[in-house]
Design goal:
Structural class of chain B: alpha+beta
Radius of gyration of chain A: 23 Å
Number of helices of chain B: 10
Distance between the termini of chain A: 49 Å
Oligomer: heterodimer
Distance between the termini of chain B: 64 Å
Shape of chain B: globular
Chain lengths: 442, 480
């Protein structure tokens, strides 16, 4: 479907509604994923899907309905279903209004050619052939998507956005070790396949025959992949107005307080040059830059129109498709890079660990952001400023707040990591006294 | 036969497919969520579409569409074939499927009360009543939620299978968050992750006794703020059925998925320590450990009449008297290992390819009463309802936390403890089990949110368990 088709659907939905306020959101597009394992393509899939969601407001009642069938009859039925649900609702006294048009950019289009199945297979073949040469086994994915979004509401908002994203990921596995690499870009041609092969294979080969070490506190260097995973819980536990209201955010009561070292600056910005861009949110609000932490000081959180209007603020442009239980979410999370060279950071460690990746992290104590998880696909001992040996994997149990306070250095480069529609831009970090709570067998 | 199915299958065959199947799914979901007297979510979601899966030149391809008009069958099948041909560029051997019995069947799901027949105002009024019961100073968040879904799925294959199935699901749960300004504590009923879910009608909501338990969880959350911290060290654990559901899920369900064992999930969720040479000879647990994969339970969320390859639902043992004896498998993976196809292939929507998913993974009940299990513990904890979870990518090193715990001293339940956690290595932990509660405590918990696969699929699974007693477990993880 093209821009005009999508806008026609949302316009039709809004025009069919008799509710006091109405919003139509159409999200969809094409996506293809070529998955590989055991050095061959084992899962090769594609889809072309669109879903229309209609949110209606009658007085203080709010309800929504959605459909994947975009025929006139189905759009009409979807609007009627939402209105019927709304009439049977109870008043939501906290609800103020759907968002008003803020006059920002109406269209956002940054699209590149999507590779066909043959081209995707050729790129995967290059990766697996490299693994075969080194007696390694590759698993990963090459995923490409063209996503489209159209929004119309009864307060004059009419927006359309379109972008492409490609992601190549490889895990190279040997008998006793594995290595990881991942890269995303708006055009698949900007993905450096050779670099992916080099990083994942090198990590796997260097980590062979890992040694066991005792759990305990270690100085660590976390790669951008590890930083992204380590901080992931923070996004839904701490950084939204809902988190402040529900008391799960460590930031509550600390705005304006200098909690971390000057070098810690974390923000969200869908229009930043250093992310995969998205100009506006799923309510059509411009994505504003929101600093969570600026030079160590606790600054702000993101919101959607519901929390913004309820609290007498301006929407920051971070709404997910409404309604949902999260409300807002930082989808372009950026941990600002520092000034240190990675090699220098490693040479500054007398005894410590280099962590390529964390896995399956989850919070144990949401307010204090105590997180547990495992290392994966590359854990190395650093001795006298040099990476010396692979190490068997370890479980960490550590507070994000404590780790940010214990940050010693941040690298002068960062990496864009795209997963499930959200983007994190993260640097390498050197952190002291990082707590590993147990070991495992491999 | 539906026109779009017929066209897709004929096109796939004409273009060289040696195997093809088509699934059309028409599904309606209703979600309701109420927080602190305000309705946060009131929505219905209707989706309809179809997916075509093919083997061409010995390799797989899949494509899907939301347009179910007849001619779209040809277009979607053609793209699926192109994708499969590209897949064959890297193939090492041809994809082969285990032969199965081919069915033509139509399976409705009778329920006592159609959940979509209950007006939304009645459902919301009930949730508001629950909200009121949970209200008390110190409780900052009160949440209640309901979920209903109804779907018709048609599965057809080039082999002649043609199966129509109805699936109706109902679920609900309540949760409170309490704070004293310094910390927060959470209590849920019947369990975390949205409560409990089953393949039943609205009668399931009525059976759940939400009203009867709302004030209890409210008060327990407030008591937890004042409770002592979970002790640390090695001690015995009696684990309740709601936490056992998560323990079964992470340390039995996932490691017995044969696609994971064979490396097909390595790029996302990892592999498994239960490698093929361990089948039928590995001491997974103690002699008290009997764990089944059961898709035949008529109400369990992990159950179904046929899987998404047309394999009729079965019940098989994964662990029998402590020995690892079975895998969750597909037609392709069962062929590779020469096993019987047990029917665990499912996709979470028409737009996703089926992958191996848990059915209902259950620890069979034993003979003990709860009192007998507790009376055998000198120094330990009684814990239940999952709060945090993590396990490594081979499913060995786990660390879980629960919402609530009680000390057990000299065979008696004593004070409440907060933030209980425990950790271990999977097979060492299961080998330490020395008693399982009897059928009267047994509960099958529906979990609607098991994530797996790339692209990600969120699947409905379930786990049945009674109380279970484990000896000498690592408890209370320190991080400061």
């Amino acid at each position: 479907m093209n821009k005009e088709d999508l806008l026609e659907v949302v316009n039709k939905a809004v025009s069919l509604s008799k509710a006091d306020q109405v919003e139509a959101l159409l999200v969809g597009g094409e996506s293809y994923l070529t998955g590989f394992a055991n050095n061959y393509i084992h899962r090769n899939v594609g889809e072309e899907t669109y879903e229309l969601s209609v949110r209606v407001v009658i007085g203080k009642k709010v309800a929504s309905a959605s459909t994947t069938d975009l025929s006139y009859e189905s759009i009409k039925s979807c609007v009627e279903t939402a209105e019927t649900l709304c009439k049977f609702q109870k008043d939501n006294e906290e609800f103020v209004s759907l968002p008003k048009d803020n006059g920002e950019e109406k269209y956002f289009e940054e699209v590149y050619e999507l590779p066909d199945a043959e081209t995707r297979a050729e790129i995967v073949k290059k990766v697996v052939d490299a693994s075969k040469k080194h007696d390694l086994i590759s698993s990963g994915k090459f995923e490409v998507e063209k996503s489209q979004i159209a929004i119309k509401n009864s307060f004059g908002i009419e927006k359309y956005g379109e972008r492409t994203v490609a992601t190549l990921k490889n895990i190279a596995m040997g008998d006793t070790s594995s290595g990881f690499s991942q890269e995303s870009a708006m055009s698949f041609k900007d993905i450096n396949v050779d670099k992916i092969i080099e990083e994942s294979l090198d990590t796997a080969l260097k980590g062979r025959s890992p040694i066991s070490i005792d759990p305990g506190k270690y100085e660590v260097i976390l790669s951008p992949y590890a930083v992204e995973e380590f901080l992931s819980s923070m996004k839904y536990l701490s950084l939204t107005e809902k988190n402040i209201e529900e008391g799960t955010s460590f930031m509550k009561g600390h705005f304006g307080e200098k909690m971390f070292n000057d070098m810690i600056t974390i923000y969200d910005d869908g229009n930043d040059a250093n992310t995969i861009k998205m100009a506006f949110d799923f309510e059509g609000m411009k994505k504003k830059r929101v600093y969570f932490v600026k030079n160590g000081v606790i600054e702000n959180v993101v919101n959607d129109s519901f929390y913004a209007y309820k609290l007498g603020k301006e929407p920051t442009g971070h709404s997910l498709p409404q309604p949902n239980d999260l409300g807002a979410y930082p989808m372009n999370f950026i941990f600002e890079k520092g000034t240190s060279k990675l090699d220098d950071m490693i040479s500054n460690v007398e005894k410590g660990l280099f962590v390529q990746r964390f896995w399956y992290t989850n919070p144990m104590d949401p307010v204090n952001l105590v997180i547990t998880g495992m290392t994966r696909d590359g854990l190395f001992l650093i001795e006298n400023g040099k990476i010396t040996k692979g190490v068997k994997h370890m479980r960490f149990t550590e507070s994000i707040i404590t780790a940010l306070k214990n940050c010693l250095e941040i690298s002068d480069n960062s990496k864009i990591i795209y997963e499930g529609g959200t983007v994190t831009t993260a640097p390498y970090m050197r952190i002291k006294d990082f707590n590993f709570s147990s070991a495992t067998e491999f | 036969m539906d026109d779009v199915i017929e066209r897709a299958l004929i096109t796939a065959k004409k273009l060289g497919a040696t195997y093809a199947d088509v699934r059309i799914i028409d599904r309606t979901k209703e979600n309701l969520s109420l927080t602190n007297r305000e309705v946060k979510v009131a929505t219905t979601r209707h989706s309809r579409g179809f997916g075509v899966r093919v083997i061409v030149d010995g390799a797989w391809g899949f494509f899907s569409s939301v347009n179910t008009a007849g001619e779209e069958g040809e277009r979607v099948a053609k793209i699926a074939v192109e994708i499969a041909k590209a897949s064959s560029k890297t193939k090492i051997e041809d994809a082969k499927l285990k032969d199965i019995e081919i069915y033509q069947d139509k399976v409705p799901q009778p329920v006592k009360i159609d959940p979509f027949s209950i007006p939304m105002n009645k459902k919301i009024a009930f949730m508001l009543d629950l909200d009121k019961l949970m209200e008390k100073e110190g409780i900052i968040v009160r949440n209640s939620s309901m979920y209903f879904s109804k779907e018709w799925k048609t599965f057809a294959s080039l082999e002649g299978a043609y199966i129509e199935m109805e699936r109706i699901v109902s679920g609900a749960g309540i949760q409170v968050i309490a704070t004293d300004g310094r910390e927060i504590q959470v209590r849920s009923y019947p369990s975390s992750f949205g409560g409990d879910f089953a393949r039943k009608g609205y009668e399931f909501i009525e059976e759940m006794k939400l009203s009867e338990n709302a004030e209890r969880i409210r008060d327990e959350a407030l008591q937890l703020l004042k409770a002592k911290l979970c002790p640390t060290g090695k001690m015995d654990l009696v684990i309740g059925p709601y936490q056992m559901a998560l323990q079964l899920h992470e340390s039995v369900g996932h490691p017995t998925e044969l696609d994971r064992v064979l490396g097909e999930e390595a790029s996302f969720a990892g592999t498994s320590f239960l490698t093929p040479e361990k089948l039928n000879n590995f001491q997974f647990g103690s002699k008290y450990v009997n764990i089944v994969a059961d898709a035949t339970d008529p109400y369990a969320l992990g159950g179904f009449p046929y899987d998404d390859e047309g394999v009729k639902a079965k019940k098989i043992y994964l662990v029998k008297e402590g020995i690892f004896v079975g895998y969750l498998n597909s037609r392709e993976t069962s062929y590779k290992l020469g096993l019987e196809s047990m029917g665990a292939m499912r996709a979470d929507s028409f737009s996703r390819i089926p992958i191996i998913r848990m059915t209902s993974i259950n620890l069979e009940p034993g003979n003990y009463t709860l009192e007998e299990l507790v009376s055998g513990v000198d120094n330990g904890l009684l814990i239940d309802v999952n709060k945090s979870w993590s396990i490594d990518q081979k499913r060995l090193n786990f660390q879980f936390g629960t919402e609530i715990g009680y000390e057990i001293k000299n065979g008696k339940i004593q004070d409440m403890v907060k933030n209980p956690t425990y950790s271990g290595i999977t097979y060492e932990f299961w080998r330490s089990l020395d008693g399982v509660g009897n059928e009267s405590y047994y509960h099958t918990l529906g979990l609607p949110n098991c994530g797996k696969g790339e692209p990600m699929q969120v699947m409905e699974v379930s786990h049945g368990s009674s109380y279970a007693r484990f000896r000498n477990v690592n408890v209370g993880v320190k991080h400061e």
